[in-house]
Design a protein that fits this description.
The protein is mainly α. The protein folds into two domains: 442 residues, no CATH class; 77 residues, no CATH class. It contains 20 helices and no strands. The longest helix is centred in the N-terminal third of the chain and has 46 residues.
């Protein structure tokens, strides 16, 4: 099946990117720790990175891909190129204006993102780091635009590989800082410069790939057209609909800025749960949207329904066990990956508590990525936007209330993570109910049978992981890095074996099913 081959392509490169991202974050934790310099860099990087996720994984592709596909279907390759070129000209003008304004008003942006930093060391550093990092937003918006073209043409590999370059550049910057024994503040400067450079490298790579795909883009004088107006109408609500998870995280950052270290602890926890979310949720969302757009345009409603069922079951097969592991053994994971240098056991415990809270919401975050394309493929971004608004209210209110209740125990950041997970479930539930009400989704018997099997297998995995972690607790916490790595590998291998065995015995999923999906049978 083409969908699964595309999913595996995107997922494989996303996995490589996230593994390199872990390497990057391990170096950041070791060099910057969880102090004011780390807090400053994470907030500075979060603003352009938020827009990267909104454009690359949400608003832009949700609006642009169906319209670009329609332009090619109705007017041929030349019509598609004309539409894409017109979008590029407007996008270039907008990005130039936004970047200039952001550089001028960086202090106000930082105040909005992290009001708790006002007047202290972290606030001043954040303004400087933000001005260095912000051009990354423009570069990544262009990358998102170019990725949408390639994805519509069923060329997923290069676009999926682009984030790998970000981590290669940042790891190189961190290694240089480590080699030169730079103090934390200077290392933050080097890292910020690396962010900007990485954006340029990715944009150049995608531009070359689009040209090699036979698409000749130009920069005509910006002019309006009915299709561009349609793009705008779809894109604006798509910002809320496609990027609600990221917006909720930013809300959490604003609230967390009032407690020292909370921003960093949330960042490290976010990076860990983003691994399965990126490998599964983002990958299936990117691959699913073009597939659904083509099927619906051809009038194949039955094929679209079948595709959604298989995408949902495949996503949860990979997500439920990951969520179970994050919930029951977060400290073992965080200790192994991050506890060294400036990142101590207290930081590990704080990060692990937030990671467990995020784990409860992981399936919801993936479901959002699976359900949203069913709306976007029908050129409906307004309905998901309304659901996202409800979710936003839940997140803001929940973050404030939960953080206030847990602040006395030093766990305000855990309340923020819990509110983000709750908001994710509200959003996913509304998206699902909306599709069912409109008869755009119906779970078939195979899906229900397999979901029950996956749930049972994930419960068995959680029990196995807990028992193995207890047996190897000395390896995890008392005998050094290599013993901790060995213990983590043994725990992952043992728990995964239990999950696979239960899936096989229950008939929820077998290895030959995966082989058939990859072969398209």
């Amino acid at each position: 099946m083409q969908l699964f081959r595309n999913f595996l392509t995107v997922g494989a490169f996303t996995a490589l990117s996230r593994v390199l991202g872990f390497t990057r974050d391990i170096l950041i934790a070791s060099i910057l720790g969880a102090g004011p310099v780390a807090d400053a860099f994470f907030v500075a990087f979060k603003l352009p990175n938020l827009f990267r996720r909104l454009f690359a994984e949400g608003a832009f592709n949700s609006a642009f891909v169906p319209l670009f596909a329609r332009a090619r279907a109705e007017e041929g390759a030349d019509g598609g190129e004309a539409f894409a070129s017109s979008v590029l000209s407007w996008l270039t003008v907008i990005l130039l204006v936004v970047t200039v304004l952001a550089e001028i008003f960086a202090p106000l942006l930082v105040l909005a993102m992290a009001p708790g930093f006002a007047g202290d060391e972290a606030g001043d550093l954040t303004v400087v780091f933000t001005r260095i990092c912000f051009p990354y937003l423009a570069a990544m918006s262009l990358v998102a635009f170019l990725s949408g073209i390639l994805n519509t043409l069923d060329r997923f590999a290069v676009a999926a590989f682009a984030p790998v370059l970000l981590n290669i550049v940042l790891i190189s910057a961190l290694m240089a800082a480590f080699w030169l024994a730079l103090p934390a503040e200077d290392a933050g400067f080097v890292l910020s410069i690396g962010v900007c450079a990485a954006g340029v490298v990715q944009a150049v790579l995608l531009a070359v790939a689009v040209r090699r795909a036979g698409v000749r883009l130009r920069l005509p004088r910006p002019r309006g057209s009915p299709r561009l107006k349609r793009l705008l109408r779809l894109g604006i609500p798509g910002i809320a609909a496609g990027g609600i998870t990221q917006i909720n995280i930013v809300v959490g950052t604003i609230i967390a800025s009032f407690w020292p270290g909370a921003v960093s602890h949330l960042y490290y926890a976010d990076r860990l749960y983003q691994l399965p979310l990126g490998m599964v949720g983002v990958a299936i969302g990117v691959a699913l949207l073009p597939d659904l757009s083509r099927r619906l345009r051809a009038g194949d409603e039955g094929g679209a329904l079948w595709t959604q069922n298989r995408a949902l079951e495949f996503s949860l097969m990979l997500t439920l066990p990951a969520a179970a592991a994050l919930i029951v053994v977060p400290l073992e994971i965080v200790t192994t990956l991050f506890e060294r240098g400036a990142f101590d056991r207290q930081d590990a415990a704080m990060t692990a508590a937030a990671l467990s809270a995020y784990g409860f919401g992981l399936p919801a975050f993936v479901l959002i990525k699976v359900f949203s394309p069913a709306y976007f493929a029908r050129e409906d971004t307004r309905t998901p936007m309304l659901f996202a608004g409800v979710s936003m209210v839940v997140n803001v209110a929940g973050s404030a209330v939960f953080a206030w209740f847990l602040a006395a125990d030093g766990l305000a950041h855990v309340g923020i993570a819990a509110a983000t997970s709750l908001a994710g479930w509200v959003n996913a539930g509304l998206l699902f109910a909306g599709l069912v009400k409109r008869k755009d989704f119906r779970a078939d018997p195979t899906l229900w049978t397999r979901l029950i099997g996956f749930a049972a297998a994930s419960l068995a995995l959680a029990i196995a992981a807990t028992l193995i972690a207890r047996q190897l607790s000395g390896w995890f916490f008392d005998t050094g890095l290599w013993a901790s790595i060995a213990a983590l590998l043994l725990m992952v291998a043992g728990a995964s074996a239990v999950f696979i065995a239960v899936c096989q015995l229950s008939g929820a999923f077998r290895l030959r099913d995966l082989t058939r999906a990859i072969r398209g049978k």
